Amino acid sequence: MKNLNKIFFLILLIIPHVGYCQNEAYSFFLAGHVYGEPGVENEGVHPPFKAKYEYIQGREEIEFGVFLGDMVIWGSNAKWDNIDADIEELGIPVYKVVGNHDMINGEIYFERYGDITYYSFIVKNDLFIVLDPNIDSWNISGDKLVFLQNTISENADECDNIFVMLHELIWWEPDNIYSDIVLNPQYPMDYRDEEINFWPVIEPLFNNLENNVIMCAGDVGAASYASPFMFDQYDNITLLATGMGKGETDNFVVVNVDEDKNIDYELICLNNEELYCFGEFTDYIISTNNTSNADGNISVYPNPVYDKLYFESDTDLTYRVNVYSNTGELIIDKTIENQTNVELDVSGLSLGVYFVRLITENQTINRKIIKI
Fold this sequence. Notes:
Largest sheet: 6 strands, mixed
Distance between the termini: 42 Å
CATH class of the largest domain: Alpha Beta
């Protein structure tokens, strides 16, 4: 059985390479931390995700999926048997991206699926690159870096979109624009080098390309304190993360690619009858939380928010803050006078989507936030 799993996984990597010059629409799903709630040993994938199998199967355009790491709480043949059985039940190919939990007893993974933890494949002229930052404390270095450089140089000119799959949010730094994203590891600096090579080495490899590059991670959404997801776009780069395990905010993502290679993202709720209970994924673009206008720069963060929402401006400003429910009810009405840094307590709000309106002397700014 283990040898059959290894053969099937290798075949899975080879088949999609026939995809050049096929400009056809297709969809796939992304699911992070599919073993679910930390400390709970499920038999297979997170039960609320498995409950969405019928939905996935009912969408014929979804051709495959990607498990973005932490598929099992720790490695054993029994746990991997359960994962493989759940993939078989789903009935479409699923590509595996290893996370730190998957590499506990990693020799079992290697015995079953081979020692391939970074690889590439092509689907309908889109290039998919799977990376494993676990090998070198979140760095892409050594043979992995050579593999990445060669894969880009050999395929970027021929392919359209480039999707990069990995477990860790290697663009996160404790002092950059993504520092407000709370990762599943409570102390991420214990797992990574103090300085890693994403921004000086890896990001420029992609930012210099003509292709749209979408980097997808799965190390959020499980721990009680963790952010449920993230989304950002700048230049030709999209950064996103999705995960499950903490409860009401569990989610996965469906990516739709049309014939013209335009990309649309669906953020799917696992524990709500309303599939799109979080609204549009693109509403959570982090870079646009920094708004430049006639009054100066105003930053609104974090989003999603737990208890405190912060407003920062580069000069003293007077403005009005209105917070509305998703049904249009005015929940908070507050006037800010001549301040640069403001803290708004939203701990009393119920989980859900809200709309924030900032009314300055010269402009009205609207933001959608999610309370978790």
